[in-house]
């Protein structure tokens, strides 16, 4: 499998090189040159364990020897707290795909445990160093740190928007004091963090001389790992309901998670509809409803991992929406960079996409959904999952069961749970243990220069 850039100027790469490159050298995002169609293999995959299914899917995209890949996959998921890795729980008329049984209790663990092991394998094979630069709106940071903390040949710099992640999310990151971990609180928004990261990766001299890599979902390996749980959940729900197609509702901020579902559908998984759900930061909802992608101001909400205006993975989707034409893609992204706006021509039926529907949810609706599910079904939702559930309920279909992605354990957002239910219900021993731990974090302005200088100073001071 070779990997190409959405912007068309990157020499095609193998999987390992694509993982190490992260953002393409022409500023685009890497994609497989072709997506394998596997509909004929689905019957033989339906009863596989999570790790065996992951191997069957990932080996189609990887250039790693199969015995090594199999060992990496098993090592990546042995620390999860459930034998199914991503179990499905039925609550009323919705099937909830619980993605929070990893070591940091968020869906990012599914991809970042895998990516940390992939990095270590490639670096060992090539006798190389790697300095990871990441931007997080909440859960990516702690999951990435957990995936690489203490590993040889790897250092990680994680930017989060100061005061715009939950206190628990912040403590999960900043209480990790390993010498190879550097936390940075940026005095701005997540979009500022993401912009700085892309600017530094676009400075090829700096990227090359400092051996920069990324764990953000611009790294294809992140998306690949997330594709697996769409197949896993669909198989289980189709077997349970005897239905031939399913729907997925996905609370969405950076478009990576729902793009993994888009890839799964292109591979032949019978998905009738993908339901995109956003909070008040509704740029993606507006695009799929009216065809206009227009940047606005970031609103701070109780679902902070979705407080994003510029979704980096949207470029991957747009590449396909524009007919896999890198020239048109470059023109549209250049226009968006200048004007903060782009539009697409609707399909003949007037829709923007015949697979993806979308809805946005406000804070009051999110809290009400948490309260209702607790009172009526005894199930606690985190605020991001509640956003997905609320929109999912507007798109139910009798013959296509609805699966909603549960992206984080509710204990990560205990204040929102208390506000919704009036009770202090959301706890987890892993998170409660963080309360009295010491923390370390640099506070820096939202400028490329400040982050660049901090990275350089930190690397100089690192022990040999």
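-> sequence recovered:
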């Amino acid at each position: 499998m070779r990997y190409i850039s959405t912007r068309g100027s990157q020499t095609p790469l193998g999987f390992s090189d694509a993982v190490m490159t992260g953002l393409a050298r022409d500023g685009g995002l890497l994609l497989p040159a072709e997506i394998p169609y596997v509909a004929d293999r689905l019957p033989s995959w339906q009863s596989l364990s999570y790790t065996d299914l992951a191997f069957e899917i990932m080996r189609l995209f990887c250039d790693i020897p199969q015995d090594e890949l199999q060992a990496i996959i098993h090592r990546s998921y042995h620390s999860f707290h459930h034998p199914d890795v991503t179990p499905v729980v039925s609550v009323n008329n919705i099937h909830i795909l619980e993605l929070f049984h990893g070591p940091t209790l968020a869906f990012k663990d599914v991809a970042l445990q895998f990516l940390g092991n992939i990095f270590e394998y490639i670096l060992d094979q090539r006798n190389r160093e790697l300095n990871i630069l990441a931007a997080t709106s909440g859960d990516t940071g702690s999951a990435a740190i957990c995936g690489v903390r203490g590993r040889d040949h790897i250092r990680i710099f994680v930017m989060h928007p100061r005061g715009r992640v939950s206190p628990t999310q912040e403590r999960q990151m900043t209480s990790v004091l390993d010498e190879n971990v550097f936390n940075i609180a940026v005095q701005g928004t997540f979009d500022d963090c993401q912009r700085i990261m892309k600017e530094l990766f676009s400075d090829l001299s700096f990227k090359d001389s400092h051996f920069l890599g990324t764990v953000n979902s611009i790294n294809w390996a992140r998306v690949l790992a997330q594709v697996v749980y769409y197949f896993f959940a669909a198989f289980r729900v189709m077997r349970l309901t005897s239905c031939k197609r399913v729907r997925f509702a996905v609370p969405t901020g950076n478009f990576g998670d729902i793009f993994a579902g888009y890839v799964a559908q292109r591979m032949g998984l019978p998905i009738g509809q993908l339901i995109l759900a956003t909070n008040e930061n509704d740029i993606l909802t507006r695009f799929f409803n009216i065809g206009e992608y227009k940047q606005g101001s970031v609103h701070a909400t109780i679902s902070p991992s979705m407080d994003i205006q510029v979704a980096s993975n949207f470029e991957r989707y747009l590449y396909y929406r524009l007919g896999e034409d890198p020239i048109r893609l470059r023109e549209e992204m250049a226009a968006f960079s200048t004007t903060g706006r782009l539009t697409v021509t609707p399909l003949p039926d007037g829709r923007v996409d015949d697979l993806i529907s979308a809805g946005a949810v406000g804070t009051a609706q999110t809290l009400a959904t948490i309260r209702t599910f607790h009172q009526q079904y005894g199930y606690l939702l985190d605020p991001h999952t509640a956003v997905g559930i609320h929109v999912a309920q507007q798109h139910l279909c009798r013959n296509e069961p609805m699966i909603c992605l549960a992206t984080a354990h509710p204990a990560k957002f205990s204040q929102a749970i208390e506000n919704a239910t009036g009770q202090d219900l959301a706890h987890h021993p892993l998170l409660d243990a963080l309360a009295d731990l010491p923390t370390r974090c640099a506070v820096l302005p939202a400028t490329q220069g400040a982050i660049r200088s901090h990275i350089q100073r930190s690397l100089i001071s690192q022990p040999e």
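The first strand starts at residue 3 and ends at 5.
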